[in-house]
């Protein structure tokens, strides 16, 4: 399963002359379901969509809050063309899940998001329709997600997810106390040595 997630100030879907949905600040998600996708892929994508830290916190620190933590909206649009495989210059979509199977699967993903978040803040387009999607990207910020092809054992998947969460927490904490102490000691030993702080580029900087 593939998802393109864009941070937006507003987004809307129009079919013909009718606007079928719109959101203010939040994220717009283009979702492509493959013929091989299972509930495991859906669970992964839903969890990532709702927990990606794409927004600033109350102090203006970037990449600190998720859409759920900010009470922002989500606009989800089914996008089978994300499963495109090129044959020369011609797009081929045989890897996309057939519409008669994809529609109930897609609807179940929406229901999972509504169950995990506030249902009134989850909007979507019109499955199978020719849509005009208007996106005002904020940043611009665009993130591509692909559900992992890996072990199907639930215990192993949980273990891998916990490992990833620990890595993310470690990155968010920044330098350790011992690291700062070592830097201070080096500075005292060699006054000309630089800690590199002046040239540091913060990961919190807007793209």
Topology, element by element:
Blueprint: E1 2-15, E2 18-23, E3 26-32, H1 39-51, E4 53-55, E5 65-66, E6 73-78, E7 85-87, E8 90-92, H2 99-116, E9 122-124, E10 131-146, H3 154-173, H4 177-189
Parallel strand pairs: 3-6, 6-9
Antiparallel strand pairs: 1-2, 1-3, 1-10, 4-5, 7-8
Helix pairs in contact: 1-2
CATH fold-type name of the largest domain: D-tyrosyl-trna(Tyr) Deacylase, Chain: A
Order of helices and strands: EEEHEEEEEHEEHH
Spans of at least 5 consecutive residues whose pLDDT stays below 50 are 191-207
Given helix and strand content, the structural type is alpha+beta
* CATH superfamily descriptor of the largest domain: D-tyrosyl-tRNA(Tyr) deacylase
The percentage helix is 25-40%
- β-strand percent reads 25-35%
What is the overall silhouette? globular
CATH hierarchy class name of the largest domain: Alpha Beta
What does this structure look like?
The chain has 207 residues and is of the alpha+beta class. Helix content is 31%, strand content 30%. It has 2 domains: 2-149, D-tyrosyl-trna(Tyr) Deacylase, Chain: A (3-Layer(bba) Sandwich), CATH 3.50.80; 151-193, no CATH class. It has helices at residues 39-51, 99-116, 154-173, 177-189; strands at residues 2-15, 18-23, 26-32, 53-55, 65-66, 73-78, 85-87, 90-92, 122-124, 131-146. A hairpin with a 2-residue loop joins strand 1 and strand 2. It is globular. The chain starts with a strand and ends in an 18-residue tail after the last helix.
């Amino acid at each position: 399963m593939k998802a393109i997630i864009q941070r937006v100030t507003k987004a809307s879907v129009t079919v013909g002359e009718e606007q079928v949905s719109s959101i203010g600040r939040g994220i717009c998600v283009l979702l492509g379901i493959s013929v091989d996708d299972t509930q495991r892929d859906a669970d992964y994508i839903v969890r990532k969509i709702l927990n990606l830290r794409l927004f600033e916190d109350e102090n203006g620190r970037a990449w600190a809050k998720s859409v759920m933590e900010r009470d922002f909206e989500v606009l989800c649009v089914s996008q089978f063309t994300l499963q495109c495989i090129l044959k020369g210059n011609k797009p081929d979509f045989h890897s996309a899940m057939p519409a008669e199977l994809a529609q109930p699967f897609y609807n179940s993903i929406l229901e999972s998001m509504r169950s995990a978040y506030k249902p009134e803040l989850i909007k979507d387009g019109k499955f199978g329709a020719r849509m005009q999607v208007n996106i005002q990207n904020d940043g611009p910020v665009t993130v591509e997600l692909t559900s992992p092809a890996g072990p199907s054992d639930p215990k192993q998947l949980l273990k891998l997810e916990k490992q990833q969460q620990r890595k993310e927490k470690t990155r968010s904490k920044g330098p350790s106390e011992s690291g700062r102490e070592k830097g201070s000691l080096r500075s005292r030993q060699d006054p000309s040595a630089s800690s590199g702080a002046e040239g540091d580029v913060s990961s919190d900087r807007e793209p």
